[in-house]
Design brief:
Layout: H1 10-17, H2 21-32, H3 41-44, H4 47-58, H5 73-77, H6 81-93, E1 101-106, E2 112-117, H7 120-127
Length: 128
């Protein structure tokens, strides 16, 4: 890569990879023009958006942190893409989040701060 060429941002590169950037741009433009949206589930449950959500989380260091069901992004990645898409779509039909794992992390002043860690499946759904 030439030294003077700026690097693309990873998020934009992923959007382009799954051909979702045009959809996001159109939704953004419609919102700027005052459009009220009533049915976004077709976009949320699209195969491209679900795979984009998985890919976005995969790079996150927290994706290897286990929630209450002990699964990680590695285990989700072992599924075939069509299985992952089917799983997320099925969960979204009647969504009830899994329980959240609670841990306490130290603050700079020595006190502890509670932190909730959702399951990786719930994080993928949130990202969608």
């Amino acid at each position: 890569m030439p030294a003077n060429k700026p690097k693309k941002k990873q998020k934009l590169r992923n959007n382009e990879y799954y051909n979702t950037q045009a959809t996001f741009d159109k939704l953004y433009q419609d919102s700027k023009n005052g459009k009220c949206f009533t049915n976004l589930m077709e976009h949320i449950t699209s195969e491209e958006n679900i795979l984009l959500a998985y890919r976005s989380l995969k790079k996150n260091k927290g994706s290897k942190t286990k929630g209450t069901n002990e699964s990680t992004i590695v285990q989700m990645g072992e599924k075939a893409p069509d299985e992952l898409v089917s799983y997320v779509r099925n969960r979204l039909h009647c969504f009830h989040p899994h329980t959240v794992r609670r841990v306490e992390i130290p603050k700079p002043d020595g006190r502890m701060r509670p932190l909730g860690i959702p399951t990786i499946e719930d994080r993928i759904i949130q990202q969608c």
